[in-house]
Amino acid sequence: MDVDVFIPCFVDQLEPEIGKNLVKILEHVGCKVHYNPQQTCCGQPQFNSGYMKESRELAQKFLKDFAGDRYIVSPGGSCTGFIKRRYASLFENEADKKAAEQLSNRIFDICDFLVNVLKVEDLGATFNAKVTVHDSCSALREYGLTTEPRTLLQHVKGLEIVEMEESTTCCGFGGTFSMKQKEISSAMVEQKVRFAQETGAEYITGTEYSCLMNIKAYIDRNNISIKPIHIVNILSHF
């Protein structure tokens, strides 16, 4: 199966290893991976800040960059969920609206794609550690990702999932929220890390690098031993 990969800009710039491991996983399950180097931001930050014209321009570029009928796979539900749920609403032109609707049916978070499209649950990965899972707001509530990450983790040899209290509560990132509401955001991430620590887990994982980036910043500032790791970086240990 031929697939395109969409690498969100913050992953591309700050943690490119996630993108590389996404490709590694897709090739491992028999996909031929295509990467368009012209791809850029999907337009979600602009949309969330009220800049609809700029968001629409980026969405139009995205439609051109990912024209065709191949599945599009991405390492996270935040940008992917925005594209699936919001792109069509950006356009008044019927041709663009139809193209956005068609694209929304082709783009998938990697966990959803593996479990529900390819019907793959066991990648043959090994990761000897206790891991707790953070359910990101965007993946859970925007994209609709629920059981798939844990389904994949349960098949990783040597990995033990230890659930934290309030795993579905926001970590405090929320894009510009963490800057505009710094005090509230800081209290939320402190609670998230504390709940993770209380499980005795060595790692905190999730599907969203933006959440893990926020969590990592708090962990580093406070010299806390638990380590954040993207789920793709666990699943690629085969």
Q: What strand order characterises the main sheet?
A: 2-1-3-4
CATH topology of the largest domain, what is it called?
Answer: Rossmann fold
- Any idea what the shape is? globular
Order of helices and strands: EHHEHHEHHEHEHHEHHEHEH
CATH level-two architecture of the largest domain: 3-Layer(aba) Sandwich
The CATH class designation of the largest domain is: Alpha Beta
Number of helical segments?
13
The share of residues in extended strands comes to 5-15%
Count of distinct strands: 8
Rg value: 18 Å
Provide the structure class: alpha/beta
User: Helical percent range?
Assistant: 40-55%
Please summarize the sheet with the most strands.
4 strands, parallel
Number of discrete domains: 2
Low-confidence stretches: none
What labels describe this entry?
13 helices, four-stranded parallel β-sheet, 238 residues, 8 strands, Rossmann fold, single chain, alpha/beta, 15% strand
Structural commentary:
It is a single chain. Helix 5 runs parallel beside helix 8 and helix 11 crosses helix 12 (209-221). The strands form 2 sheets. Strands 2-1-3-4 form a 4-stranded parallel β-sheet, with helices on both faces. It has helices spanning 9-14, 16-28, 44-48, 52-65, 77-86, 94-104, 110-117, 137-143, 148-153, 177-180, 182-198, 209-221, 231-235, and strands at 2-5, 32-34, 71-74, 107-109, 126-133, 157-161, 203-206, 227-230. It has 13 helices and 8 strands. The protein has 2 domains: 2-115, no CATH class; 121-235, 3-Layer(aba) Sandwich (Rossmann fold), CATH 3.40.50. Helix 12 (209-221) links the parallel strand 7 (203-206) and strand 8 (227-230). With 238 residues, it is α/β, with parallel strands linked by helices.
